[in-house]
Design brief:
Layout lengths: L2 E5 L13 H7 L4 E4 L8 H7 L4 E12 L2 E8 L6 H27 L6 H8 L6 H10 L24 E2 H10 L3 E4 L13 H9 L4 E5 L5 H14 L2 E4 L19 H10 L2
Parallel strand pairs: 1-2, 2-3, 3-5, 6-7, 7-8
Antiparallel strand pairs: 3-4, 4-6
Helix pairs in contact: 4-5
Length: 269
């Protein structure tokens, strides 16, 4: 088995339609792929219907707040029809529209000649997100979108959003019959790494695993995370975090062992 537990489609901020992902996964040699679009299950039925050689794990990547920073939580094997989780995701998504519109306004106030209509066209029906605003900025020659100058967390054009606490998100994932895995906690793109103490607190709250092998986490970081995960009894997963053409990574670039996948299945509520 070759397993990738973190991938995105055009249902959120990926560039690959969900019905195409299973074929690309099979071509990459994968046997299991988790579709984990941001705060939505919208692509799941299309991906599942198109799956033949590849098992599609139902998943979602939830934007959360951990202390004073944003983190992302993967909910794997969740029931997409579980109403409390679906309702919370709907609230997060609708707030994205408000936030996105205000961020575009701030960008315009800072001199960027972009419009909400342009950003919505880039999103093409997907939940509005910062990557879509960044693409609009890049189209007018502004290539440093994800910096404090523009739309990085706390940047001049950033706008706070509705967000769950990570502990609450873990509880929702578990109530939906799934398992919670913390995504890329020490990515080089994060302003601050999730600390050992924070990981310990999340493990106490029911976190099942931590994404160790990830393209944005250098090997020494992965080695340390693997040690911490083992000490805390957390499962160590690996994933590509595939976004299609939006990121220079390919499906299966990092993978999860069959043993860890089996243990994740066993963790389900």
């Amino acid at each position: 088995m070759t397993i990738d537990l973190h991938a995105h489609s055009t249902a959120s901020d990926g560039t690959t339609p969900p019905e195409v992902l299973p074929r690309l996964a099979a071509e990459a040699g994968l046997t299991v792929l988790a579709l984990t679009d941001h705060d939505t299950f919208a692509g799941l039925s299309a991906a599942s219907a198109a799956a033949a050689e590849v098992e599609i794990v139902p998943g979602v990547e939830i934007s959360c707040r951990l202390d004073d920073a944003e983190v992302h939580l993967l909910g794997l094997f969740v029931d997409p029809l579980f109403a409390p989780l679906a309702d919370e995701l709907e609230l997060i998504r609708t707030d994205r529209v408000r936030r996105g519109a205000r961020m575009v306004e701030r960008c315009r106030e800072l001199g960027a000649p972009i419009t909400l209509a342009q950003v919505e066209a880039i999103a093409a029906g997907a939940p509005l997100g910062r990557p879509h605003i960044a693409a609009a900025l890049a189209a007018v020659g502004i290539t440093d979108a994800f910096t404090p100058n523009w739309i990085a967390d706390g940047g001049r054009a950033d706008v706070p959003k509705h967000v769950l606490s990570t502990v609450d998100a873990i509880a929702l994932v578990r109530a939906a019959g799934g398992v919670a895995v913390l995504a890329h906690p020490r990515s080089v793109k994060r302003r601050a790494a999730v600390s050992d103490a924070q990981l310990a607190a999340l493990a106490e709250a029911g976190l099942a695993g931590v994404e160790v092998d990830h393209p944005e986490q250098p090997v020494p970081v992965r080695d340390r995370l693997r040690e911490v995960a083992a000490d805390l009894g957390l499962l160590a997963t690996g994933s590509s975090d595939f976004h299609g053409d939006r990121k220079p990574v390919h499906l299966g670039e990092c993978t999860t062992s069959p043993e860890v996948l089996a243990a994740l299945r066993a963790h389900r509520s």
